[in-house]
Amino acid sequence: MEQTFIMIKPDGVQRGLKLITVDQSFAEKHYADLSAKPFFNGLVEYIISGPVVAMIWEGKNVVTTGRKIIGATNPAESAPGTIRGDFAIDIGRNVIHGSDSVESAKKEIALWFPESPVNWQSSVHPWIYE
Ligand code: DAT
Ligand code: MG
């Protein structure tokens, strides 16, 4: 079968074509449940300090499985092979976010993707799911 290689090149990344920058009030909404924590202001500053890549992952048990792939909140406690375990050191620079429950995932997706994303199913779906 024919194949093609596609890559977002450095200028595409630098120009923010695949990235989102959020402002303070948006970040405060995203982390609203942590507003009483002593690290809240630092956390908001960190999240608005540069562009992020926002994604929706879809799949069976994806909230729990996504959190397993991401690893524990504190990278020092994240297992090797997890994203935080392999790529982060400090809790305040733990490189990746993932919703902690189906309910917060719904809230966060509504916040980050106010226009409902296209709902589609891959043609390989029946080859992956029973
Ligand atoms: P998670 O991101 O694993 O869901 P969380 O929702 O409890 O963790 O906290 C959100 C982020 O806040 C977390 O990814 C990193 C930061 N954070 C959490 N606890 C912290 C702490 N004790 N000191 C500094 N930053 C903290
Ligand atoms: Mg959380």
Strand and helix layout:
Layout: H1 10-14, H2 24-30, H3 40-47, H4 62-70, H5 83-87, H6 102-112, H7 125-128
The structure holds 2'-deoxyadenosine-5'-diphosphate (DAT) and magnesium ion.
Task: Describe, in short, the structure shown.
The chain is mainly alpha-helical.
Can you describe this structure?
- By secondary structure, this protein is mainly alpha-helical.
- 38% of the residues lie in helices and 0% in strands.
- It has a single domain (12-114), classed as Nucleoside diphosphate kinase-like domain (Alpha-Beta Plaits), CATH 3.30.70.141.
- The structure holds 2'-deoxyadenosine-5'-diphosphate and magnesium ion.
- 2'-deoxyadenosine-5'-diphosphate (DAT) is lined by residues 34, 39, 43, 73, 91-92, 94, 97, 100.
Mean pLDDT: 88
Quickly count the helices.
Answer: 7
Uncertain ranges: none
The end-to-end span amounts to: 26 Å
CATH H-tier superfamily: Nucleoside diphosphate kinase-like domain
What do we call the CATH topology? Alpha-Beta Plaits
Helix content: 25-40%
N-to-C SSE series? HHHHHHH
The distinct bound ligands, ions and cofactors come out as:
2'-deoxyadenosine-5'-diphosphate, magnesium ion
CATH architecture: 2-Layer Sandwich
Shape, principal axes of CA atoms: globular
Topology, number of strands: 0
Overall SS class: mainly alpha
Q: Give the amount of beta strand, in percent.
A: under 5%
Q: Evaluate the radius of gyration.
A: 17 Å
